[in-house]
């Protein structure tokens, strides 16, 4: 794991899966997550500034699709709970990205059995 403020221009070893990560990535100027497991470290307050003091592991918890159609990863810090959005990179693991995208369908926030009757009022109970 690298220290706060250190450069990652030469790449880094993923603190979560241990794989070597190269700094060069298509579609991003600031490599900030592992392309295999998509985990990150809480190093930035703003993209590329390396000013955060936390240093905790950032778990990928969701994806967002921005207005222009670009995808971004949503990370939650396991140490402090901070949330952050990071652009995906061209070499990110597509299977992991899609599994994050469909997670709300696989584990909905409400019981699906209440939908079978077509009565939306049932969801409010």
Average pLDDT for all residues: 83
Strand order, biggest sheet?
Answer: 3-4-5-6
Order of helices and strands: EEEEEEH
Unreliable stretches, pLDDT < 50, 5 or more residues? 1-7
Report a brief summary of the structure.
This protein is of the alpha+beta class and 125 residues long. It is 10% helix and 22% strand.
Would you write up a description of this structure?
- This protein is α+β, with helices and mostly antiparallel strands and 125 residues long.
- It has one domain (12-124).
- Helices cover 10% and strands 22% of the residues.
- The strands form two sheets. Strands 3-4-5-6 form a four-stranded antiparallel sheet, covered by helices on one side. It has a two-stranded antiparallel ribbon with strand order 1-2.
- It is globular.
- Mean pLDDT is 83; it is low at 1-7.
